[in-house]
Amino acid sequence: MSIDISKLPQEVQIVLSKFPEFQLNDYNDSGANGYVLIGWHQVLKKRVAIKIYFHEENGVEQEPSIIQKIRHPNVLEVYDARIIEKNCSYFLMPAANYGDLATFLNRYNILTRLALNFLCQLLSGIAALHASPNNLVHRDLKPENLLINDDDLLIADFGSVRKIPVTTGKAPASKHSILYRPPEAFGTNAFFDYSSDIYQAGLIGFLLFGGKLSNDLLHHLTPKENTKLKTIYSSSDAYQISIYIDSCIENKIKKNNLIDLNSLPFYIPKSIKSVLRKAVSEYSKRYSKTSEFLADLSKIQLNFPDWLETGDGFQLYNWKGNDYLLMENNGKYVLKKKRHTAPTYRIDSSISGNSFEEIFTALKEKIALP
Asked: 320 and 295 in one domain?
């Protein structure tokens, strides 16, 4: 499908004029604060992405040049970074074959071991940003700003990245993506530091292990708040409505009620929930360093079950040499089992129950699942 460049936004046309060697294949303007161009770079001989993003006037200083120097397997390489206008800049980067994490999770159910690997990769990339002499905070970590290329998770979208001053240890709070803002990013003394990125990583971990966090802000309002919103609709403009909705979300975040870790799938170990709970705790109780978060995850990795929700049911892969399948068959819940290398399952009549949870509880005790 050909794209009429003359109909694209001015900022996009300016960037394309700087790259005659770039062949545009796809254009995406669904982002909250910019555009993404996907195409073929004739000099580099590879698919690349150009992310155009908006920021405060003269709000970009040294961050793009620092990002360009970072070489880490979980931080997307930046080929070029330039300012287009006072409030608009761009990054030229490799394109990822699976797109962003939000799209990936909507399209696929993933194994719990892959979820754990992705979370560890995310923290490893964050550690590279935080490390001296970079001293950077991302400030806008969310599924839409993370890319999946093969089995690698890559931190991308550096439009909100800021350097942490040694004197204060804090950066101004970003106002992007209210759902992913930590509690300390609200109010008159709002700020972001290394622990704030860790909070966002904890939310992403919740999603990786099967949690749900709707981008529809109205979904998070209580019945009482929705009732009040109806009265505001009839007497206020769009700005006042937006302010009220944001205040409801802020209140939920400050009370640590945004996500419910008990809503994770029944097979997610309590150890994972405990680690995620610490990651998204209030500021004083949260991990302050990525190394602390990674250390707790490494303790879990050695004895971590590999579950996957499929169209057939819930599968546990290669636990002590066996595969297990929890499924519904003719209105009954059953457990099937096979050797990991065997082609077919057989019903295990030693375990029964009236729900997946009951069968799982019995299986957990029998085969010593964490």
From this structure: no
Q: Is the domain of 170 the same as that of 65?
A: no
User: Residues of the chain with pLDDT > 70: what percent?
Assistant: 96
Boundary-marking domain end, from 77, 94, 111:
94
Q: Are residues 320 and 222 in the same domain?
A: no
How confident is the model over 114-138, as pLDDT tens digits?
A: 999 999 999 999 999 999 999 999 9
Element (H, E) at 366: helix 356-367
Could you list the residue range(s) of the whole structural domain that residue 310 is in? 306-367
Contact 141, 155 (CB under 8 A): yes
227 and 285 co-located in one domain: yes
Rounded Cα gap, residues 117 and 151, in angstroms? 9
For the residues of 126-145, what is the DSSP string, one character each? Answer: HHHHHSTTT-EE-S--SGGG
Question: Residues 6 or more apart from 108 whose CB is under 8 A from it?
Answer: none
Number of domains in the chain: 3
Question: What sign does the CA torsion over 211, 139, 38, 214 have?
Answer: positive
pTM across the whole model: 0.91
Quick one: which of 266, 264, 274 has its CA closest to 209? 264
In contact, 18 and 40? CB cutoff 8 Å: no
347 and 211 both lie in a single domain: no
The per-residue pLDDT for range 298-325, each reduced to its tens digit, is: 999 989 999 999 999 999 999 999 999 9
Beta strands in 213-348 (DSSP E): 306-309, 314-319, 322-329, 332-339, 346-347
Contact, 78 vs 43, CB < 8 A? no
| CA dihedral sign, ordered 99, 104, 107, 110 | positive
The answer to whether residues 146 and 185 touch, using CB atoms and an 8 Å cutoff, is no
Distance from C-alpha of 173 to C-alpha of 190, rounded to nearest angstrom: 6
Structure tokens at 59: 């709000």
